[in-house]
Structures are given as C-alpha cells and as structure tokens.
Amino acid sequence: MPRLSYLKALNRALGDELARDDDVFLLGEDIRVGASNVTAGLFKRFGPDRVLDTPLSEQAFTSFATGAALAGMRPVIEFQIPSLLFLVFEQIVNHAHKFPLMTGGQCAAPVTYLVPGSGSRTGWAGQHSDHPYSLFAHVGITTVVPATPADAYGLLVSAIRHDDPVVVFAPAGALGVRADVDFAALAPVPLGVGAVRRAGTDVTVVAVGHLVHDALAVADDLAGTVSVEVFDPRTLYPFDWDGLAASVTRTGRLVVVDDSNRSCGIAGEIIATLAERGVPLAAPPARVTRPDGAVLPFAQALDRAVQPSREQLTAAIHHVTKDG
Amino acid sequence: MTEPEAVRLYRTVRLIRRFEERAIDLVRSGAIVGGIHPYLGQEGVAAGVCGALRADDIVAGTHRGHGHVLAKGADPARMLAELCGRANGLNRGRGGSMHAADFGVGVYGANAIVGASGAIITGAVWALRRRGGDQVGVSFFGDGAVNEGMLLEAFNLAALWRVPVIFVCEDNGYATTMPVDSAVAGTVAGRAEAFGIRSTLVDGQDPEAVRDATAAAVDRARASGAPELIEARTYRFDAHHTFEHAVRLDYRDPAEVTRGRSRDPVTIQGDRLPDEVRERVDTEIEDLLAGAVEFALAGPEPDPAGALDHLYASGLVARTGSH
Which residue in A38, A243, B105, B120 is deepest, having the highest Cβ count within 10 Å? Predict the structure, then answer.
C-alpha cells in the first residue's frame, strides 16, 4: 500500500477540492511557490485566479475572504504561522463567525483557515510556536485538529465543504507523519465525530492532534501494565461528547493531553463536561497541558519543558490508575 | 440632470431624514433599546452615492448606517422593525441598528467595526466579477476609519487586484469626538493616492454633486476594474449617538454646529423642486413612515427559544449555557 504523508494529504485535499468545485479558491502568503509545501504545484495546475498569492496584509485578505464567501464562494486561506491568527482574530471572530446570526440568516461565510505547522517547531521561539485551537473552540468556530494523514485529507475536505468558518490546525508535530493509505479510500471525514485509536479497558486518554501519536506510544509502553484507550476527538468544536462519554463509561478513568495552555483550555472543558454528565469516574481525572500563559522559550530544552511530554502523560496515567 | 432624478434624490434624502427623526422618537419612547447613531445631516452622501448605482451593485456601511441601507432600497418598515428588535425586521431582530442588512438589495450590512467594510466589499465584488458579473461595490466609512490599518490594506488589495470598489469617505469632521485635524496626518485623498487610487473631493451636502461624482467614478471603475475614492465633506447635525446628550459631551463649538446645519442636504435638494412636487413627496414619505412605525410596533417579538437561530449556516446547534 502506498505511503501518504500528512503534508501531502493536505495538498491532495486542496487539489481535489479545487478540481471539484469552481467556487473554491486559495489565498495566502507565498502559496504560489508553496513555501510551506502545502500548496505545492497548485498554482501551476489551477492558475492565478484560483491560487491568489497575497501581499502581507493578513487582516485585509482575511476579510476579503469573508466578503467572497458572503458572495457565494468557498475561500481557503493558508496561514504559514499560527501567530497570524492573533492578527486576524477580529476578522474571523467578529465578522465571518457573526454574519449569519447578525443578519438573521441572510448569508453564510464558508471560509476555511488552514494553519500547517501549528504548535512548536523547535527553535522558532516565542512568536511562532503557539497552538491556539482552544481560543477558536471557545468562540464557537468549528475547530479541527487532524492527527493522521487520512484525517488530514478527510477533515480538510469536509471543512471546505462546510457552510460555516472552520479553522484547521495541522500540528507541526504531525506534519512528518506518514501512513499506509489506499488512495482510493481517501474520503471526507465528518466534522464532530471522534475516533477510538486504540481500545483499552483501564483509562481513556484523550489526545489532541500530534499528541495522539504520543499517547499511542505511551499506551504501547504500558501494555501489560495498564490497558489504555486512546480517544482522538479530531474536531474540538463541535466535540463528540457522546463518543467520549461512551469511552470513559467503559474505562472509568480519564486523562487529557492537550498542547494548549492550561487555563480555559480544551482539556478543562473536556473534564468539566464529563463531570457534568455524571460519567462515573473511579479516580479524579488529570490533564497534561502547557503551563498557564505559556510562551515557548527558544532553547530546545526549554521549549520541550513547557510542552506536554510522554513522561508527563505516563505519570498522569499511573496517578489516575494507581488505586485500580 | 433630469427632473425625475432630482425628485428621486430628494425623496431619498427626505426619507432618510424623516426615518431618523422617527427613530429618535422611538429611542426616546423606549421602543428602540440601545439607541442609534443618527445620520442626520449626512443624507446627501448615501442618496447621491446609491443613486448612481445599479440595483445589483453592492454596498457595505458603518455603524451610522441607516442612510446607506435605506438609500440602496431596503424596506423602511422592515428596517424600522429591525431597529425595534422585532421578528419581522430585516434581520429578524438579530442585528439591530448597527447591523441592518438586506442582501436582497445588495446591502452587505451596516458594520459596527470602524473600517471593516472595505476589505469585505473588496472580496465580495471580486467574487461577483469572477463569477461573470460586472458589479461594482461601495464601502462607506468615516474620517476616523482612514487611520485603521485594515482599510489601508484593503486599498492596496483593491488597487493591486483591480477590484472596482468605490471607497466613500464620509468626512463629517469627527471620529466620535476626535476632530479630523487632530487625527489624520496628511489628507484622506493622500491615503488613496499612495496606492494609485484616483480620488475625488465632493460637497457631501449637495446630493446632486455626490451623485454626479459617483456616477463618473462608477463608470470608470466598472470599465477598468480600478478602485476609486470619493471624499465627501459632510456634517453630522446631531450627536454621535442618542445617549450623547445624557452624558453632556462638549466638544463642538455651537457656532460651528449652527454653521454646519445651515447647509442642509434636504433643503438644498428640496429647493431644486417646485413646491408642489416637494410637498407631494413629503406627504408620500409621511404616509410611508406612519405605516412603517405602525408595522414596526405591531411586529412580533422574537421567540427567546430561538435566540441562537442562524448562529450557524450549517445548521449546527450550539450547546445551551445551562441545563
């Protein structure tokens, strides 16, 4: 079976959607040459009317996309670094997200914001290493964090076809992942549906994005000692609460590993919702996250020190299962 | 200019004027909650600009946006119902004064964020033309907005990508209370010229002058794709917002206000018509607005159970805030 890389899966999804729907177009910085490789070859294939290389004008081209979407098109913006989302938070949250309600349902704003390389790329330091998916889940924008190449393809395709704004976070830590994939089987993955990546009986580990692979590695290491179930939500907003509740009901224990800041992060939301639902837990839940207010330092050892690690996850699993 | 166009312009400025006066009454009576940003004095800009547009051209405006929405052809009764928060309003009671929109007549919304309409309308016009249309778009903004980076970025994109947007600066002299002389280094026209955008300065109190300047700009833009800027010098007769009087802000010299009010677009355009024509139009508008007030006040309140209806075009239903 052929190998598909995560990055190539994103590229393939963009190419397939451009070919399928003339209303889809791409815009972003350096996408003509595909500086991030995500748009490689698409300018030559589709030309300047479908692949718009933009000046460094993030706020204007983000609202330009909103306007184009209001007029019936389906723009996809590539942001090369996650911090640019801070610059255009207003344009996404205050305009694209709010237009349908504020106009009483007169319009839709189907824009996809694709952020390949979100999170730490070691050595990129304070302003290039954020992973701000929890902010978008908080404001109610459909927020997707694929972990595997097949999901990167399928969730991006679904995002482009979705009638509301969607942010697709492709974690830096997942871009290098490759998997055996039957290309003919690549298909849209529904938004809002999680996946059990590994079945287990002692504890459910909810892992977001690239951390799914860390959670699977930890589960392997612990096999024979602790039976770990790995739940990949895939979409953080809307969240597959029923799928997660079913998993935690089976295992009775919960650990969340999430590469965003602790306070008001998605990990806190997951634990709160499970508690509200009254899912019986045999031990208090745990979360492994970045620290509150984290800024990633430059030096490699410091950068790693503020990201969730396999060691921290292993310790959390032991802590949560120690009574059992 | 033929007489029917002169009458049409008068009808629009008079409609906006009387609509605003009625709306202020409804704010005072409590029927409009939250207040409004009156457009009194600036009617000539919306009337003149929209009078030069085709029905399928598009506009987006500002938080002082009633005039733009009405001039483009939205139903005054449904608009007043929207201001009153009624289910039969333009936006089903979800938008109110600062977000009134009517996509059916090409109004992509009043917008409460200063300068926000520039990039949105640029993208929308680009999309309509890419789909084979030959529409132009108008972005209305105030003098305060020319210091917003996003608007200047939009100038650049529109010029670079040849998108026929008419950027209309309604220079009423104040960004809330900040005088334009204290806020704008250089000139508004200079902002446009820096991006290679042709600019026209026009007397915003004269509806016909605005209409003529816009018609010329629209013709050029529609043919060439190049954006244009119109700087319309105008004057806000009343407060920035209806609660301004309550807080007794003092930032304009009374003599300046008197001078500004002496150049009234409704009078200027009305004086161009025979008395009997003007009186006929006035009567029509009084009848129309009496019906609009009745329609708005009789409109049903939206059902609170549907407070988040339309939040998602995809039909996603949000979790509620409590059990």
Answer: B120
- How far, in Å, CA of B65 to CA of B46, rounded? 9
Residue of A61, A73, A192 with shortest CB distance to B127? A73
Cβ <8 Å between B123 and A101: no
Cα gap A234→B88, rounded to integer Å: 40
Considering only CA atoms, give the Rg of chain A. 19
Rounded to whole angstroms, the Cα distance separating A252 from A244 reads: 11
Residue B266: count of CB within 10 angstroms of its CB: 23
Mutate: best of B312, B319, B322, partner A, most A CBs <10 A: B312
- Rounded to a whole number of angstroms, the distance between the first and last alpha carbons of chain A is 41
> Are A71 and B127 contacting, i.e. CB atoms less than 8 angstroms apart?
yes
Please, which residues bridge with residue B159 across strands? none
Residue A85, min C-alpha distance to chain B (Å):
15
Query: Mapping DSSP to helix (H, G, I), strand (E, B) and coil, where does residue A290 land?
Result: strand
Task: Kindly list the residues from chain A whose CB atom is less than 8 angstroms away from the CB atom of residue B104.
Answer: 106
Give Cα B233 to chain centroid, integer Å: 15
> A290-314, pLDDT tens digit by residue?
999 999 999 999 999 999 999 999 9
- Are A120 and A171 within 8 A, CB to CB? no
Q: Per residue in A153-189, pLDDT tens?
A: 999 999 999 999 999 999 999 999 999 998 888 999 9
Query: Six-digit token pair at A35?
Result: 């500086």
* Phi and psi angles of residue B172, each rounded to the nearest 5 degrees, phi first: -95, 10
Query: How many CA atoms are closer than 13 Å to the CA of A170, on its beta-carbon side?
Result: 33
C-alpha dist (Å) from residue B17 to A11, A106, A141, A293: 54, 27, 40, 51
Q: Of these residues, A128, A131, A210, A213, which one is catalytic?
A: A128
| CB neighbour class for B215 (10 Å; exposed up to 12, middle 13-18, buried from 19) | middle
> For residue B23, how many other CB atoms are within 10 A of its CB?
27
* B95 secondary structure, DSSP code: S
B313: Cα within 13 Å, side-chain hemisphere: 23
- Which value does ipTM take for this structure? 0.96
A213 given a catalytic annotation: no
- B38 preceded by cis ω (within 30°)? no
The CA angle B276-B277-B280, to the nearest 5 degrees, is 85
The reported pLDDT for the residue numbered B2 is: 56
Q: Do residues A65 and B123 touch, judged by C-beta distance below 8 A?
A: yes
Task: Evaluate if residue A324 carries a pLDDT over 50.
Answer: no
The pair of three-digit structure tokens given for residue B231, joined into one six-digit string: 């700087």
CA dist B216 and B233 (Å) reads 18
| Facing A61 at nearest CB: one of B157, B310, B312 | B157
- Mean model confidence pLDDT for chain A: 97
A324: Cβ contacts below 8 Å, ≥ 6 apart:
A202, A252, A253, A282, A283
Three-class DSSP category at A4: strand
Give the chain A residue nearest B88 (alpha carbons): A104
Nearest-angstrom CA–CA distance, A227 and A202: 5
Report the candidate in B164, B309, B176, B170 with the shortest Cα–Cα distance to residue B243.
Answer: B176
Q: Mutate which of A54, A103, A112 to test chain B, going by most B C-beta atoms within 10 A? A: A103
